[in-house]
Amino acid sequence: MVVILCKQAQESSDAKPELKKGTLTMDVDSMIKSCLINRIRLLGFFILLLKSKNKIQVYFPIFVAFAGNGKSVYNAWRTPSMWNEIPAFYPHIGRRFHLRSRFIDNWEKVKLVKLELFDKNKRVMWMTFNGKNTNNMNWFDKKNLADSSFNDLAPCSTFNVFSINGDLRNGWLDRRFLVNRSYAGCAQDYGWFVIADTYKPCKWEKRGSAPVFIYTRNNTPRNYNQDSDTAETMVISVLMDM
Questions:
Q1: What's the rounded Cα separation, in Å, for the pair 169 and 181?
Q2: I want to staple 118 with a disulfide (CB 3.0 to 4.6 A). Which of 109, 110, 192, 233 is the partner?
Q3: How far is CA 235 from the centre of its chain?
Q4: What are the extents of the domains in the chain?
Q5: Which string of DSSP letters, residue by residue, matches 56-111?
Q6: What is the pLDDT of residues 197-235, one digit of tens each?
């Protein structure tokens, strides 16, 4: 059985959140197939529960990062002491700091990982990864890539970097969560996705205060100068056994 629960906002700040809109149940295989086909978007106030063989699998956000707030995304992701539990209604709490769940440091039950970019409340990019037999740093790797919104990205694509650590050159370059094809000087940099976390040496990275979330559009050569856009928010969610 599959149960989808939607948590609704309360008008009174003193009222406790409650689950409304009932439940939806159907055959597990049919629901999973439907989810994959329609690429259901699950934001912080949506939780997907899959009940099967006496196990409950939960798909929920564990990290929310905001562009332009001056805080390092990389440091927030990898530092346990920087956790800030993610409230159900995180889109409304402000963007002054990134939100980090303690589930990041309890990775052994993770099955799937989803990274999404949003701009003006619209999802503009997503990637999903196999999370089995990974840790909270090496899941973001070409060998774990399962699917994405990019129409030419696959594990067999050509990369010079595909990692959370990205490309760090102290005092000059700081590119994290980097999915990059090639470098040949700023004018000839090609790739799919990058967070300009602190330093921004190239013109294509200088799009407001750090961090900057940059992705390239489909059906282009994927040159960061001509073919890229930016996003306001990055959300990382996981599917895990509970």
A1: 18
A2: 233
A3: 4
A4: 58-242
A5: EEEEEEEEEEETTSS--HHHHHH-GGG-B---TTGGGS-SSS-EE-GGGG-GGGEE
A6: 998 999 999 999 999 999 999 999 999 999 999 999 999
